[in-house]
Amino acid sequence: MPKRHAVVAGAGIGGLTAAIALHRRGWHVTVCERAPEPPTTGAGIGLAPNALRALDTLGVDAAHAAGSAVPETMGLRRFDGQWLTRTSTADMAARYGMPPIAVPRPAFTAALAATLPPQALRYGTPVTAVEDATGRPTVRTAAGPDLAADLVVAADGINSPLRRSHFPAHPGLHYTGESAWRTIVDAPDLGIASMSETWGRGRRFGVTPLCDGRLYLYATALVPAGTRPADPRTELRHHFGSWHDPIPALLDRIERLDAADILCNDLYDLAAPLPRLHHGRIVWLGDAAHAMTPNLGQGGCQAIEDAVILAHLLPAGDTADTPDSPDTTDPVPAALAAYTAARRDRTNAVRLRARRIGRLGILRNPLAAAARDLAIRATPTRLALHGMDDLFNGFRLPR
Questions:
Q1: DSSP H helical segments within 243-298, as ranges?
Q2: What is the pLDDT of residues 2-56, one digit of tens each?
Q3: pLDDT at position 322, please?
Q4: Which residues contact 50 (CB under 8 A, 6 or more apart)?
Q5: Residue range 323-332: mean pLDDT, rounded
Q6: Nearest Cα to 183, choosing from 253, 268, 107?
Q7: Contact yes or no for 151/278 (Cβ under 8 A)
């Protein structure tokens, strides 16, 4: 009996997780990725308990697959080094059943890709269009013959061409006012064991321990969209050179890197939620569906949740022939409607919450920033953790 065929547009974390989940549901899967080869450089990614729990349902051990580091503490600091709040990851593990971990993004995507059959992955193959989305879709690519599919998973990123094509009235992306720099440095001698983010006025600097003594570093500043300094290393020194230790020492490490090893991006999120997360037999997930700022560290985590729940709701791929045109007995359209119902409100709430946190983090007015810092210091750790319960305990497989 022929298998149902899913074409996944995009080999990022969400697309690869969806491909794994569908493959394990018995679907024949083809992943079409625009990039000519897997990424070898990039930044880190934090995997919160909700994402780790979702990966567990697939039998994917992120820590084993990509290496991980569990920081001793996580917290927020002022630009002068004063801690505003700090939480033991042991307390988080006790509350949520596991601590968050941090992994290098290229290693994590490579580990996910290795879980799939090699023939499932097609690099250098961007999806250019999906035709007859309400029947049996035809997927057109820029490098090869058309693909007939029973399902198209649009995991084609924050600038999703498929989202623009099928939701032309949607307002698109919203610029937050910030530009971000991200990189990874080797710094085992600095002995940094805490995950921290430092807030100044209109600027932020984050440090996340990875495996083997490496550190994932990120920073943001309020700048006009499209601003690209000639040398990001000089720009980072300008913004953060006078901040607390160990930031100056970390900037020294950054200055040893090639400028090309520092990722520079403006920060956008989706201006408004999509009216639904599916159209015919196309379904959106991750940044393509609900692009959010990184302020909660939930962008990749929500993409993983999307992928696992989507596959859970869809029928097994090897149980029946798929008709050439929709009919009332085919379970796929109903499953996609159930996916929208399961994911749209949760992901939109996380998107809005991340936006609000970002606005607090980039306050420029001295009085407003001081009031913000005072409120954070006055919040008991127990209450701060309680505020994360809906995120970290929010993953549930629909019945």
A1: 247-255, 287-290
A2: 899 999 999 999 999 999 999 999 999 999 999 999 987 778 999 999 999 999 9
A3: 47
A4: 301, 305, 391, 392, 393, 394, 395
A5: 64
A6: 253
A7: no
Nearest to 11 by CA among 155, 220, 216, 190: 155
Query: Considering the chain, what percentage of its residues have pLDDT values greater than 70?
Result: 96
Tokens of 48: 């919160």
Burial (Cβ within 10 Å: 0-12, 13-18, ≥19) of residue 129 = middle
pLDDT tens, position by position, 86-135 = 999 999 999 999 989 988 999 999 999 999 999 999 999 999 999 988 88
DSSP conformational letter for 69: B
Q: How distant, in Å, are the alpha carbons of 24, 111, 152, 301, 364 from that of 115? A: 10, 7, 20, 19, 46
Domain ranges of the chain: 5-70+105-173+270-362
Name 319's Cβ contacts closer than 8 Å, sequence gap at least 6.
1, 26
Rounded-to-integer distance, Cα 75 and Cα 87, Å: 6
pTM above 0.85, yes or no: yes
Class of domain 5-70+105-173+270-362: alpha beta
Spatial distance between the Cα atoms of 61 and 53, rounded to a whole number of angstroms: 10
Give pLDDT tens digits for 352-394: 999 999 999 999 999 999 999 999 999 998 898 999 999 999 9
- Dihedral-angle region of residue 172 (phi above 0 means left; psi in -120 to 50 means alpha; beta otherwise): left
Q: Are 77 and 196 in contact (CB under 8 A)?
A: yes
Dist CA 303 CA 14 (whole Å): 5
Tokens of residue 379, six digits: 């919040």
Q: In this structure, what are the phi and psi dihedrals at residue 83, rounded to the nearest 5 degrees?
A: -75, 130
Rounded to an integer, what distance in angstroms lies between the CA atom of residue 224 and that of residue 178?
8
Bridge partners, residue 278, by sequence: 283
